[in-house]
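Question (not urgent): is this output format expected?
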Amino acid sequence: MAGQLAGQQVKQEVGAFRAELFAGKKVLVSGATSGIGLAIAEGFAALGAQVIATGSSAAKLAALRADRTLEGIRFEQLDVRDLEQINRFASELDGLDVLVNAAGVARPADEYRDDVFREVIDVNLTAAMRLSMATRALLERSRGTIINVASMLSYIADVEVPAYCASKTGILGLTRSLAHAFGVAGVRVNAIAPGYHRTDMTRALWEVPASADKIAARSALKRWGEVDDLVGASLFLASPASAFITGVTLPVDGGYATGV
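Got this back:
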């Protein structure tokens, strides 16, 4: 089952933190029906948080709700492109300590089309702003934390995905701006920047030995990342250990962006 695999992946990262670190805390993770978002949701749940994980696919949500290894996570349908739906969803929350904006899409080769370009920007960048603003009052009340998901493509180019590059570069600026806008109320806003991690989005690359080896060779650690490699960074940025860290984007790419 998906939950069993993801659960195994996050054990090492979660084990670095005090058990029940987030007991009683309420966490919302968008784009959490697979990959990075799901792993982060599991990481918080494993440390005692009450986690709501959202996604747009009814079929994926139904499968995850039926997975008994994920019973500690509440899965809800949410279209992050719909401001009215987001505002209604946020109004029904009784509190929030951590918001993780992990929803993201890429449309390789199609992003030069105007409609596709706008769709990718909407999901990857504008949705993070929508969710942050919709939950601002709740986060101010708890002096909570926002964690956005940027990318190594916030720093380097990929001609196949201009909208993805633009949206993830935009996350850097949004993170800095919201950190200053929300900081006066004690809300911290940071981001993580994943590199090449083995997810469904990158499957076309890591399943081909030539491309997989080339990518691993450029990284300082000479390997691909796994989704669990992003869990520890997210937990740290939401924890008291990072109480004076805000407005930053933490690369979690094994040194890929600095490689040659």
